[in-house]
């Protein structure tokens, strides 16, 4: 879903450490700030980034800090395209994993709502995964201009 012809783009990689989840949120929030998102839009994006990055760390790499999480994003007009991915263990049954309340790690008290949250907060959402090779989450969100809200 990442646009190669986009005028503005960024890419970042970081260690699969839980403390880097907040870093990822800030990076994406800073990148999208030029679109002047509403607080709700910004919070939605930050939540989606948190969910995706946490999935990479906990499920993709089983909390192994040697793993690498990648985020790439581009902005075209008022739309942000974003891909968050790992090269971890992948998802055996993607359709099962996308079911609300399903979690492969119930012992960690995971809610199983990550994919559902991401899908509901974004305009477009797609997960691709290959066991043994990793998972990629691609998303798209059009930011409503605050100027349009007040005119």
Protein described:
The protein is α+β, with helices and mostly antiparallel strands and 151 residues long. It has one domain (8-150): Histidine kinase-like ATPase, C-terminal domain (Heat Shock Protein 90, 2-Layer Sandwich), CATH 3.30.565. 34% of the residues lie in helices and 27% in strands. It has helices spanning 20-32, 39-60, 94-97, 114-121, 146-150, and strands at residues 8-15, 68-76, 79-86, 124-130, 134-142. It has a 5-stranded antiparallel sheet with strand order 1-2-3-5-4, with helices on one face. A hairpin with a 2-residue loop joins strand 2 (68-76) and strand 3 (79-86). Helix 1 runs antiparallel to helix 2 (39-60) and helix 2 (39-60) packs antiparallel against helix 4 (114-121). The longest helix has 22 residues, at 39-60.
What topology does this entry show?
Elements: E1 8-15, H1 20-32, H2 39-60, E2 68-76, E3 79-86, H3 94-97, H4 114-121, E4 124-130, E5 134-142, H5 146-150
Antiparallel strand pairs: 1-2, 2-3, 3-5, 4-5
Helix pairs in contact: 1-2, 2-4
């Amino acid at each position: 879903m990442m646009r190669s012809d986009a005028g503005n783009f960024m890419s970042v990689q970081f260690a699969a450490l839980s403390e880097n989840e907040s870093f990822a949120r800030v990076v994406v929030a800073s990148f999208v700030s030029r679109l002047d998102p509403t607080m709700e839009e910004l919070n939605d994006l930050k939540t989606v980034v948190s969910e995706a990055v946490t999935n990479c760390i906990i499920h993709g790499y089983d909390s192994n800090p040697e793993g690498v999480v990648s985020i790439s994003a581009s902005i075209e007009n008022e739309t942000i395209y974003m891909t968050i991915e790992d090269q971890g263990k992948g998802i055996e049954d993607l359709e099962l994993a996308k079911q609300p309340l399903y979690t492969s790690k119930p012992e960690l008290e995971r809610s199983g709502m990550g994919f559902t949250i991401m899908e509901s907060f974004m305009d477009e959402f797609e997960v691709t995964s290959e066991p043994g090779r990793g998972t990629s989450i691609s998303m798209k969100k059009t930011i409503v201009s605050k100027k349009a809200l007040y005119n």
